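Hi Y.,

Following your request, here is the sequence exactly as I used it, all 296 residues.
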Amino acid sequence: MSDRTAPRWLGELQAHFGAVLRSPLDRSTGTLRATPAEYDPDALGAVLDGPRARAAERLAVYNRQYWFRLFGALQTAFPLTARLLGHWRFNDYAGRFLLAHPPRSWDIDHAPEGFETFLAGALGDDVARDALVEAARIDAAWRALFRAPATPPFQPTAADAARLLDARLVPSPACAFVLERWPLLELKSALASARGEAPVPLPAPLPQARWWALVRETAGIRHLPLEAREGELLALLRRRTVRAALAALEAAVPEPERAALPGQAQRWLAKSVERGFWTGLATEPPSDEDQGSTQV
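Below is the corresponding structure, written out as C-alpha cells. Let me know if you'd prefer a different format.
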C-alpha cells in the first residue's frame, strides 16, 4: 500500500465541497429546500468549473441529498423522539445538532452520537421537555444495545466471593436500566409498526415511576420489569462497589424498610447475575461509558 499523502489541492477541494453540502436547507416555506444563492461564494467558486448557475443547481441536488440522508440517520436512531416531536420539528433540532457537531466519520451511523445530550440543552422551557429528554435517552440506550459487542456474562467463582463487596460489578454493554416516568417503552413498541411523520400525543405521566432492564437477546431487546428498590440498587452498582452501593441504598430507604433490605438485596444481586447483567468484577473506577449508561 502506498504511503503517499493526498495532494493539497484535493484536500482543499474536498473541504470546499463539504462546506457547500453542509449549507443549511431553508425551512421558511414549510418544505426543505436548498438555496444555492446562499452558498459561501469562496467555497462555491472553488468547486465550480462551468457556468455557475447550472453547476450551483447541480450542487443543490447533492446538498439536499446530504441533509436528507443525515435526517434519515437521526430519525432511525431516535424513532420515538422523532414521532413525539413530529419529523418536521425533529429535523429542525437535528439540523442544529449537525451544524454544531458535523459528522467526522465515513460511517453515517456515527452521525447521531450525542444527539440526546444536545437535545436536552436545546429544548429549553418546552412544556414536554422532561418527557422528550427521557424519550431521547431511551432511544440512545436502545441504539447502544444494538451496537454493543457480544460479551460473555459474569460467572462468579469461589474466589470472587471473597472480594465481591469491595469490587465493582462490570456492566454488560448489552444491558441498560431505565427509570420510566411516562409509558414510553410501550409507546415505542406501538409505534414500531405505525408509519407516519406527524407528532403523536404524549401519554399521561405514570402514577409512579417504574424501573426496567433492557436486555439485548437473539430475538431483539427484551423489557424486564424491576422492583423500585431493585432498580435503584442496580443503577448504583454500575458506578460503585457492591459495599458502597448497598450502603447508599440503605441510607436512602425509610427505616421500616431496612430490616428486609439485606435479604432483598441478596436476591436482587443473584438474579442480576443469572440474567447476565454483568461481565465480571473490577477494582478500578468505572469508565466514562459505564457512568454515562447508569440509567436512562
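The chain has 14 helices and five strands.

Thanks again,
Q.
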